[in-house]
Automatic annotation (TrEMBL):
Pfam families for the chain: Amino_oxidase
Transmembrane parts of this sequence: none
Organism domain of life: Bacteria
Origin species: Rhizobium skierniewicense
Protein name: Amine oxidase domain-containing protein
InterPro entries to which the protein is assigned, alphabetical: Amino_oxidase, FAD/NAD-bd_sf
Residue span, Amine oxidase domain: 70-272
Any one GO MF annotation of this record: oxidoreductase activity
Length: 287
């Protein structure tokens, strides 16, 4: 859940919105909804194809967004926690109950338990070989995604807030200003087709940007002031683990994330909440 700002514009370049199916997730969001950090997004969602007019999605499922930016929800949920941002962990060393993190030239720890919430391929590379669920991590399949953030020269007169696109290059176009509590400046967020992203993951970003702009013009005539591309190497979950989380009690290591259940914001929450409940039971049982 991420938002990039530029002067008077804002681009939600991670998760575009989320839905609520599970009562546990619904209850957890109650305070955020009351505080206004989560609101309903009522913009029209359509389907687009190269040889047909836009058709309404027909879905009645409410769509939600963080306000004033997508990361407002994790910020609200992490209030009171010591969250360190922009920190790269290069290695995990030690043993159960005495785990250490290598952060630059510093060694942080010891920690009783370590939990990785990184995408499955990165968790597999980071977690020690003794983690008993390495095989499960290796079975997860994730797709890449390129996100194009476009600032048009003029207001776009298009009859939808967002569109799912049947196209070999792109599969999502969104007028970000249609979301609540966003700046009124016209902003387009465009996501790539996941298969195309996997195929082109290591191509130069300026080439990717040009290809995606060409794809947009098949559906929307556009002149733009700026267009910025972002590469997500692990974005969409194609094949999840199939269980809520991975817990190795003997090694005191664990992993969780949307890739355990499926590529949805709610899945990430349920995975983390389920692991948290399991760890609480283990810790309380040991006291």
């Amino acid at each position: 859940m991420a938002t990039r700002r530029s002067e008077d514009a804002a681009f939600d370049h991670g998760a575009q919105y989320f839905t609520i199916r599970d009562d546990h997730f619904r209850n957890a969001l109650e305070a955020a909804c009351l505080a206004g950090s989560v609101r309903t997004w009522n913009g029209d969602l359509v389907y687009l194809g190269t040889h047909r007019d836009p058709t309404q999605s027909g879905s009645k499922t409410p769509r939600y967004v963080g306000c004033p930016s997508m990361n407002a929800l994790p910020k609200a949920m992490s209030e009171g926690l010591n969250v360190l941002l922009n920190v790269q962990v290069s290695a995990i060393t030690g043993e159960p109950g005495q785990w250490y993190l290598q952060i630059g030239d510093e060694r942080e720890g010891p920690f009783d338990w370590l939990i990785s919430t990184a995408p499955a391929p990165q968790s597999a590379a980071l977690l020690p070989s003794r983690f008993e669920h390495h095989d499960a991590l290796g079975l997860v399949k994730m797709n890449a995604c390129f996100t194009l953030m476009v600032r048009p020269k003029h207001k776009l007169h298009i009859p939808f807030a967002a569109a799912r696109v049947d196209d070999p290059v792109i599969d999502w176009i969104c007028r970000n200003e249609s979301k609540p509590d966003r700046p009124e400046t016209p902003c387009l967020v465009v996501n790539s087709n996941p298969v195309w992203a996997d195929t082109n993951i290591d191509r130069p970003l300026d080439v990717i940007r040009a290809d995606m702009i060409d794809a947009i013009t098949r559906y929307i005539p556009i002149e733009y002031e700026a267009a910025v591309i972002h590469r997500w190497r692990y974005a969409n979950v194609q094949r999840p683990v199939g269980k809520a989380f991975l817990l190795d009690r003997a090694s005191q290591l664990a992993a969780c994330g949307d890739w355990c259940i499926g590529g949805r914001v709610e899945a990430a929450f349920l995975s983390g909440a389920g692991l948290g409940d399991a760890l609480q039971g283990i810790i309380e049982g040991a006291q």
